[in-house]
Design brief:
Elements: E1 10-14, E2 17-20, H1 21-41, H2 50-76, H3 78-83, H4 98-116, H5 120-127, H6 131-144, H7 175-194, E3 199-200, H8 203-220, H9 239-260, E4 266-267
Antiparallel strand pairs: 1-2, 3-4
Amino acid sequence: MLTYPEIDPVAIAIGPLKIHWYGLMYLLAFGTSWWLANLRAKRPESGWTPQQVSDLIFFGAMGVILGGRCGYVLFYNFPQFLEDPLWLLRVWEGGMSFHGGLLGVLLALAWFGHKYKKNFFDVGDFVAPFVPLGLMFGRIGNFIGGELWGRIADPQSVPWAMVFPRAGDLPRHPSQLYQAALEGFLLFVILWWFSSKPRPQKAVGAAFLIGYGLFRSIAEFFREPDAHIGFDLFGWMSRGQLLSLPMIVIGIAFMVWAYRGANNPAKTA
């Protein structure tokens, strides 16, 4: 069994100014996305300018933050919102949802596409490969914060299990790191490779939906469900798996559409 590395959630403190690790993970996520997007935008055939990339990252960041918070309230704790509507604005108390953030980003991409007269699906294909590394940093932030821990594990069969201070005295799977590896790093490698060659419009975005949905569903088998929710279906399906299922179905449908579309020219995202 490993010892959980209790890290001060405050990474930098200068007088009254405190910068938390979770905030730094967000900065790393957006900064890495900006760097990778500019790297792809330098291709002669990309059709993207540095100013468009900067605006895209800003729009996406707003979608992540606003959508992530609203999604958490709607999908995971709506009764608390009904009792205390101002809780929606108290983001410092925690509570963000990937699936809500995804919806927020999709709306932001639609707004961005309208502003710059770019096709929504082209923008989605361009953005998709950069998202997983941001998710990886977010899960690392969850691990440092000792939140969203995994299910109870037997140290003899899971020697890397650890006791999370806020989760009781029993060793658990470090599921945050599983998610960082699967829906973060591994998905990034797959999408970066997949998008490095010309693909039909919608194919890269579809690959993201399928990949994330599958990897999130796998990781959820090791993650402890929210205490106030438990399992949603069949006594084993979690809320995260339930929300990921439509992503897989939609992703497969879009992938079929992409490769059967006679009018969708092959392109590089």
